[in-house]
Amino acid sequence: MVFVGRLGRGALFAALAIYLLLPLSAVLLSSFATTWTANPLPDGYTLASWGEALANPRLQAAVARTFGLAAAVLVLDILLVVPAVYWQRVRNPRIRVVTELCAAIPFVLPFIVIAFGILKLTGFAIPSLLGTPPLLLLGHAAIAFPFLYWSVDGAMAAANVVKLNEAAQMCGATPLQTLRHIIVPNIGPGLATGGMLVFATSFGEFALVQVLVGARFENVSLYSLDLLTRTSADFGTLAVLTVLTFIVLFVISTGVVWSNRGKRGTAVAGARAMTAEKDA
Amino acid sequence: MPDAGSRTASIGLEGGRAVTARPTAGAPRSVRATAARIAGDWLPAVPLLILAVLLLVLPTAVVVLQSFRGETGGITLANWAETLSRKSDRRAIATSLELGALVGTISLLIGAPLAWAISRALPAARTAWLSLLNVGANFGGIGLAFAYTAVLGTYGMVTLALQRLGLPFTPPPSTSFTGLAMAYFYTNIPLFILLTLPAMHTVRDDWMEAAEVCSATRFQFWRHVGIPILTPFLLAGWVLIFTWTVGIYGLAYALAGSAPAAPVRLMTLQIGIALNQSANGQQRAAVMAAILLIIATVSLVTYRIILRRATRWFS
């Protein structure tokens, strides 16, 4: 490994910055461009694309669907994951064997394979559910749950829920009361981190949306694909939509980093074992 | 995640108090009491387990079964034989694996030194690096495919700039192997850095000082201490990037999937195209999906074994 000096470090940083920011700048510029076919920079600048795109009902609907779905997935995952993790920590550790195994599936298995499996299974079992948003909601909840699972699990370990639970039980609290008034208030950062990751997963997901519902539930990724690939491609609107999507995801991930500040954990959810000193 | 496992064990003991407080073993218990106990042990987790089984475990099983199902039902190996003997499908498998290995390796070679540099940077610089990496790691899917066009398309920014300078530059088409690889690097190199960044702190600064005091050169330090410690973490990162790259679908579909005679075939694209564009070919798509499942399983097991070795030093 080459050891880079201060100057080298600066050059490295500049190179990386250009490399990482160039595509984003190109998209941003093309959202403000009048025409851009001959020169390295746009021929002129206008706000027309933004005005048109933001007034476009199809874009509004796609954004609304994407936000609505992600929010629903988030709520569903919180309702399902928090009680399960609580119970496996305070009552029945054997639950963990199953949940860990299930959480590993979306971690390594491509979403297109999961989408294919859900499509086939639903086709055999409940064909009427095919192509409906509820199926997509369940699918997204399933592929996104590990992010919430891992961060809630970590937060419960950090908050020492076993002790909290004992104390609450001594005072005569029921498990539901304990969960609501003792556990949840103590795992705030974990819920926030995991919740943002769940939201982002649903927000940017493409395979399940395309395979399970398709054009019947046109969200941001499907609309973007259509804008990109149809013959009369509308790059102005697409640029606006891409910038908007990026902003949402970037804000979320900055939020994740911020809510994890001080902890020397991994910045990528799911790969927490990459930190060796976690148990030290 | 081996250390998670060991933590589980210790937590299991702590939490075991509730378990041992149950009625003494051997005492006669009615069926109803047993049922109530099982319900009490599992009930709060049941909704999550149902979701996971119905939408993750069973679909995975269905894919495998489907790959062994004949056109008219019955169990057959014909789908596997057909897929593995088809030139286009074989090429798809090979291309996916090559792409995964290439992206993993380049991410490792570029990412590892960068991760080291960032881990030793001052807090302010570190924040700047992390924000930049976050840009890369969050810019993916269809948006990145569009950005590729905007930068390296026929009228892309870089294409136009280079041609302006008089260079005879023709960008690699987004449907080519090179084009896909370049788009994949964009998210995967930052992802690799973010993945391995925490591990860089396992090499302590005092060790470098100790080596220096013993008049070891930088090279000797890396050769005998730094690289042996970091290797498992870097390999684990390689495995993850390889696996995720092989599984990328949205970006690949937007770049190459809609081309009528796509020059590049990937496993994920073959599945997607079979599902979207035609009713037939689904049996072969099931075989592809089953192969991806095998790759995912092997990767996960390898990842865990490597990390168990890596963290053995630190427990």
Give me the oligomer status. Answer: heterodimer
Largest interface: A-B, 115 and 126 residues
What share of the residues of chain A does DSSP label as strand, in percent?
A: under 5%
- The overall average pLDDT of chain B, rounded, is 82
Task: Walk me through the structure.
The complex is a heterodimer of chains A (280) and B (315). Chain A is mostly helical and 280 residues long. Chain A has one domain: MetI-like fold (Orthogonal Bundle). Chain A has twelve helices and no strands. The longest helix of chain A has 34 residues. Chain B has a domain of 198 residues: MetI-like (MetI-like fold, Orthogonal Bundle), CATH 1.10.3720. The radius of gyration of chain B is 25 Å and the shape is globular. The N terminus of chain B is likely disordered. Chains A and B meet through helix 1, helix 3, helix 4, helix 5 and helix 6 of A and helix 1, helix 2, helix 3, helix 5 and helix 6 of B.
Summarize the SSE layout with pairings.
The complex is a heterodimer of chains A (280) and B (315).
Chain A lengths: L5 H27 L15 H8 L1 H34 L4 H14 L2 H15 L7 H26 L2 H10 L4 H12 L1 H17 L2 H7 L6 H10 L5 H25 L21
Helix pairs in contact in A: 1-12, 2-12, 3-6, 3-9, 4-6, 5-10, 6-9, 6-10, 7-8, 9-12, 11-12
Chain B lengths: L1 H19 L10 H12 L3 H22 L10 H8 L1 H33 L3 H16 L2 H12 L4 H8 L12 H20 L8 H9 L4 H30 L2 H8 L9 H11 L4 H31 L3
Helix pairs in contact in B: 3-14, 4-14, 5-9, 5-11, 6-9, 7-12, 9-11, 9-12, 11-14, 12-13, 13-14
Question: Tags for this entry?
Answer:
heterodimer; A: 280 residues; mainly alpha; MetI-like fold; 12 helices; 0% strand; globular; disordered C terminus; B: 315 residues; disordered N terminus
